[in-house]
Write a structure and sequence with these properties.
The complex is a heterotrimer of chains A (about 130), B (about 500) and C (about 450). With about 130 residues, chain A is of the alpha+beta class. Chain A has a single domain, classed as Beta Barrel (OB fold (Dihydrolipoamide Acetyltransferase, E2P)), CATH 2.40.50.100. Chain A is built from four helices and nine strands, in the order βββαβββββααβα. The mean pLDDT of chain A is about 90. With about 500 residues, chain B is α/β, with parallel strands linked by helices. Chain B is built from 15 helices and twelve strands. Chain B has a seven-stranded mixed β-sheet with strand order 1-7-6-5-4-2-3, with helices on both faces. Chain B has a three-stranded antiparallel β-sheet with strand order 10-12-11, covered by helices on one side. Chain C is α/β, with parallel strands linked by helices and about 450 residues long. Helix content of chain C is about 35%, strand content about 15%. A seven-stranded mixed β-sheet of chain C has the order 2-10-9-8-7-3-4, with helices on both faces. In chain C, strand 5 and strand 6 form a beta hairpin. In chain C, helix 5 runs parallel beside helix 11, helix 6 crosses helix 7 and helix 11 packs across helix 13. Classes of the chains: A alpha+beta (about 130), B alpha/beta (about 500), C alpha/beta (about 450).
Chain lengths: ~130, ~500, ~450
């Protein structure tokens, strides 16, 4: 059974979001990394780029598939976790910690309300 | 068997060579006076080896491969039939291979006749009205075919509105990739449990935005689209076109024709249906056939004839054949030269051999063989589709115990001396094993394959470790694909 | 039927096992109206003896290079093919095998293609090569699409001196993707650098240059690259006559981002156009964007070194509509041909051959330059072909030369460059002896008189 953290928000496309002072940290859920298998590459996001909710932020590649990461929120990308570029397996090992992918400065905090809570995500995955 | 064969770089020595320049009377060296020194290459890192080393190297490498002559090669959807030796022989005639694509038409009348006659035969075989022989492979044919659809709607002033190509979820990956390459959006249609088009899903998706549908028939689960007539009617009433992916044409070769079923565009995989070799991944050829209303959009050049009242085959017409870039409406040029000519020579030789007498035997025996394998294995492996199949049958490893997967079965088959079937495709059937024996397989070899499959299923219960650790009888064993992708080594570097 | 081994008793046994009385039952899912009542009209079945005799006769209707001297290049070249090339590609386990999806049974193909990639990387001086493309034109088109997607731009500069067919293919591929192509003007047979300088802007995603260009002239790649680099525009070099890489500094030497083209010259006869061999080599930052197959080295569970297809996740069978390209089947056997050819001639042989081509073409240039009725419009460094203009209609000259067993191209460059009347590219390789070139000179003297 894959882990779901209580203090995070989630999307239907298996991204997690943590909000701190107007900054959203985004990563892939444990469920998603299990399905992808060994992750071999994460394409760096362009820092300073403006994104809209549901834009493709980057692509995560495993041996057998590639998966687009959709932005759960709108705003500006302020940083990309260079560690996942250098050692992509960190997403497999610590999807919620060292395996975060990027940080976005939110343009609207309102959008957070549209995301799923841990409970809702859990229910969605059980369906 | 030699398992690890060093790269030729490892044998290189400056005194070795496999080549000597021919004699020439032009002895002046023009390089110094005619080429700026900066532009002259300083360094070139290729190995220097003797011819005997090259011969041994590649002969030993070839022994690490499995080919159609090693035994059964039941890769579903790939039609790994026997490649007649005659094909290779005729393609190497000097009169064919020592001709240039830019020779004037009156110096290549033999080539033009061959292509013209082949187009005609492909029309007969598929029920289409005209063919372009240009596309280099199946996916290139798809791209060409979808560009034809685009051009057709552009001509009707509907290019901006007809933006969607419908594709069943069971389709080959090239279909959606080609539709996108040709500028369309893709929408998936649901498949029924037998991989056929779900008519309700199709009706729901139909709108004035739909330019066409891409169908493989028989489909990727090896079943004939029994509702094809209704599908064609629905699409045509909607003003949309039907595209036929010819990957599975072998099943109905000489038995039924896509052109009669309402398809507007057809691509063929010459290297599947028409017996030309796969070459370890090409070259192929992917001719595209169309109905009358699409002829003027075909890519350049087409082969014209000055007087079309002449009956084929009449060798006298050769003088009157020419290539032309007719068409103001053409989608343009899709490759540097006109066609993969030598591949087409092989297909032509094959069709001449089949003739009207034998062509139907291809489809018949391909389908008989697939159903035989299915009948013999259906009590041992889960068979998700009960009906008779066409040229390939899909079985599933999903009901096996001990966590055995389709991949494990495939790897274990190698230990028994067979190439595995296609696995994990079609995507709509979990743990799929797609088996296509083709018409050229012997019953004896199929029986050995069936026995091996039964043994493996038994092993999966009694000694699953045998499957998990397979193969052990092959030049190498299971590979570390993660390492290959992470520690990327894709070219030998000077050390 | 000699390719179908099934006997009537096999057939009966199989039908019994399936539980059917006749084979037709297996086709009952096909609506009966579609079942053919008559076989397709493809003529009577022929024996092998009859097929080979017929095709042999047909092939002799052509004027081949055995019948006449070939002075045609542009998109395909007549070079010698050492016997060993055919010998290796005739090995059944090479030519009958499928794409190497099962590495345990495909190490032969995989290692050979790894060698091909290595050779191409070193020939072009780039960081990586894929396993092959269809041909030089589709390789250039795919390179353009790859680079523009990576740079999120929609406009590409293209040299006006790309071969006209190559240019046409780029337009075909660009249209459905809404890519704008802007042509870079030429001046005296090569790219006009000032004009290029004026065209570069932030909207431009890449620039595609062919060298040697369509007139056979070698472009100043160092200068072009530096103009593009200054504005951070991705540079794509196309090399169609790959023999030139044996003598000329490769585009990788000048920091091009992509080098692609046609490698038919490496061990393949022109074969009336195909198949040839497309290749694509890229700088490091594009490795994971490259279309097509890529072979990588790894180890198996016993830690034995081995080869596999890698970076598969970008491909159409996995990524479907989001794939980097729709390419599936490529030209693997042609890549093997090129690998055997390059292994045989080696570093020294390729240099010697390239130089030989250069010298023969320059001898021809010198001889033809003085013929009355011939104008050579551009006199800049070239490799093994150049443009000539005749004082008489090209069709007439071509027919007269054919009478004398000489073949020149059907392409009149006046069709593509209106200011070039009666002009044609003449190409010279190691296959054209001094005697042949002298005969061409004498024939032209006579015909153009």
């Amino acid at each position: 059974m894959s882990k779901i953290r209580e203090d995070l928000f989630y999307t239907h496309t298996d991204e997690w979001v943590k909000v701190d002072d107007g900054i959203a940290t985004i990563g892939l859920t444990d469920y998603a990394q299990e399905h992808l298998g060994d992750i071999v590459y994460v394409e760096p996001c362009d820092e300073d780029q403006d994104v809209k909710k549901e834009d493709v932020l980057t692509t995560v590649e495993s041996v057998k598939s590639a998966s687009d990461i959709y932005s759960p929120v709108s705003g500006k990308i302020i940083s990309f976790n260079s560690e996942v570029e250098e050692e992509s397996s960190i997403i497999n090992k610590e999807p919620y910690d060292g395996g975060w992918i990027c940080k976005i400065e939110l343009s609207s905090e309102e959008e957070i309300k549209e995301l799923m809570t841990a409970e809702e995500y859990k229910a969605a995955k059980e369906d | 068997m030699k398992k690890n064969i060093e790269l030729l770089y490892a044998l290189s020595h400056e005194e070795k060579t496999g080549y000597k320049l021919p004699y020439t009377e032009i002895t002046q060296d023009y390089v110094n006076e005619s080429l700026p020194n900066d532009w002259v290459r300083k360094e070139l890192f290729l190995p220097n080896v003797s011819e005997v080393e090259v011969a041994r190297h590649f002969f030993n490498l070839s022994k690490l491969n499995y080919g159609v002559e090693d035994g059964m090669y039941p890769l579903g959807s790939c039609t790994m039939k026997y490649n007649p030796k005659m094909n290779e022989h005729v393609a190497q005639y000097d009169g064919f291979q020592k001709t240039h694509p830019l020779q004037a038409d009156n110096t290549v009348s033999g080539n033009l006749f061959l292509l013209f006659d082949l187009e005609d035969m492909l029309c007969e075989i598929t029920g289409m009205d005209a063919f372009t022989l240009s596309p280099a492979a199946g996916a290139h044919g798809e791209f060409t075919g979808i560009l034809l659809i685009r051009k057709y709607f552009e001509d009707k002033g509907e290019a901006d509105t007809r933006t969607i190509i419908l594709i069943p979820e069971s389709a080959h990956g090239t279909n959606p990739a080609s539709a996108v390459a040709a500028g369309f959006d893709v929408e998936e249609i649901k498949s029924t449990a037998t991989g056929e088009v779900d008519l309700d899903s199709l009706r729901e998706k139909l709108s004035d935005k739909v330019a066409g549908i891409m169908l493989t028939n028989p489909n990727t689960t090896g079943m004939f689209e029994s509702n094809i007539k209704e599908i064609a009617a629905l699409l045509h009433e909607n003003g949309s076109l039907l595209y036929y992916d010819g990957a599975n044409l072998n099943a109905i070769l000489g038995i039924a024709r896509p052109g009669d079923m309402g398809f507007d565009i057809v691509h063929l995989n010459i290297h599947k249906t028409f017996s030309t070799p796969h070459g370890g991944g090409g070259p192929g050829a992917g001719p595209v056939g169309v109905k009358e209303h699409l002829i003027s959009y075909l890519p350049e050049p087409i082969i014209g004839i000055e007087d079309d009242s002449i009956e084929l085959p009449d060798m006298d017409i050769e003088e009157k054949l020419y290539r032309m870039n007719r068409m103001d409406k053409s989608i343009g040029r899709i490759r540097l030269t006109d066609s993969s000519f030598s591949v087409l020579v092989k297909a032509y030789a094959y069709i001449l051999t089949l003739g009207e007498e034998h062509i139907h035997e291809v489809g018949e025996n391909a389908v008989l063989n697939a159903n035989y394998i299915k009948a013999m294995l259906k009590d041992f492996l889960y068979s998700p589709i009960a009906l008779p199949c066409m040229h390939e049958c899909v079985l599933s490893a999903s009901k096996l115990e001990n966590g055995i997967t389709a991949l494990d079965i495939s790897k274990r088959l190698m230990d028994y001396g067979f190439h595995p079937p296609t696995n994990y495709f079609p995507l709509i059937i979990p743990e799929a094993l797609m088996i296509e024996p083709t018409e050229t397989e012997t019953k004896e070899e199929m029986d050995r394959f069936i026995t091996a499959m039964k043994t493996i299923v038994r092993e999966s219960k009694e000694n699953p470790a045998l499957l998990k650790s397979a193969p052990t009888n092959t030049p190498i064993r299971r590979t570390n694909d993660t390492k290959a992708a992470k520690d990327l080594d894709i070219a030998y570097k000077r050390r | 039927m000699r390719f179908i081994p099934t006997t009537s008793s096999d057939k009966k046994n199989m039908m019994d096992s399936i539980g059917i009385e006749n084979v037709e039952e297996l086709f009952r899912s096909i609506p009966s109206e579609y079942l053919l009542q008559e076989p397709p009209g493809i003529g009577e079945a022929m024996s092998e003896q009859d097929v080979t005799q017929f095709l042999s006769e047909l092939s002799k209707q052509n004027v081949s290079f055995d019948d006449a001297s070939c002075f045609i290049g542009e998109i395909a070249w007549y070079h010698y093919v050492p016997s060993i090339v055919q010998s290796v590609t005739s090995m059944p386990s090479f030519y009958t095998a499928y794409t190497p999806y099962q590495p345990e049974l495909s190490q032969g193909t995989l290692e050979a293609i790894y060698e091909f990639q290595s050779y191409m990387v070193h020939l072009t001086k780039m960081d990586a090569s894929n396993a092959s493309m269809y041909d030089g034109a589709s390789a250039a088109a795919e390179a353009m699409i790859m680079v523009l997607a990576a740079n999120r731009k929609k406009t590409a500069l293209v040299s006006s001196l790309l071969h006209p067919y190559l240019k046409k293919v780029l337009y075909t591929y660009a249209l459905p993707r809404n890519i704008n192509l802007v042509e870079v003007p030429s001046d005296d047979g090569s790219i006009n650098h000032e004009a290029l300088q004026k065209l570069v802007s932030d909207d431009i995603g890449c620039c595609i240059v062919q060298s040697p260009n369509t007139f056979g002239i070698i472009e100043d790649l160092a200068e072009i690259s530096s103009i593009l680099k200054e504005r951070k525009i991705a540079s794509i070099a196309v090399v169609l006559e790959s023999f030139s890489l044996g003598l000329l500094q490769p585009p990788g030497e000048y920091d091009f981002d992509v080098v692609c083209g046609e490698a038919q010259s490496f061990g393949m006869y022109p074969q009336f156009g195909g198949p040839g061999l497309g290749y694509m080599c890229v700088a490091e930052k594009y490795i994971r964007k490259m279309p097509g197959r890529i072979i990588g080295k790894t180890v198996d569970v016993d830690n034995q070194p081995c080869y596999v297809m890698t970076l598969r996740a970008r491909e159409q069978d996995i990524r479907r509509n989001k794939a980097t390209s729709n390419i599936c089947t490529n030209n693997a056997l042609c890549a093997l041909q090129a690998t055997v050819f390059l292994s045989t001639v080696g570093q020294k042989g390729l240099r010697d051959l390239a130089k030989r081509n250069f010298n023969h073409a320059h001898y021809a240039f010198q001889e033809l330059n003085d013929v009355e009725g011939i104008t050579i419009p551009y006199k800049k460094p070239f490799f093994n072909e150049f443009l000539v203009q005749f004082n008489k209609p090209l069709d007439y000259v071509r027919d007269e030369l054919l009478q004398r067993d000489m073949l020149i191209s059907k392409n009149n460059f006046a069709d593509y460059f209106s200011y070039l009347k009666n002009s044609v590219i003449l190409s010279f390789t190691e296959m054209n002896s001094k005697a042949e070139i002298d005969l061409l000179r004498d024939a032209l003297k006579e015909v153009l008189k």
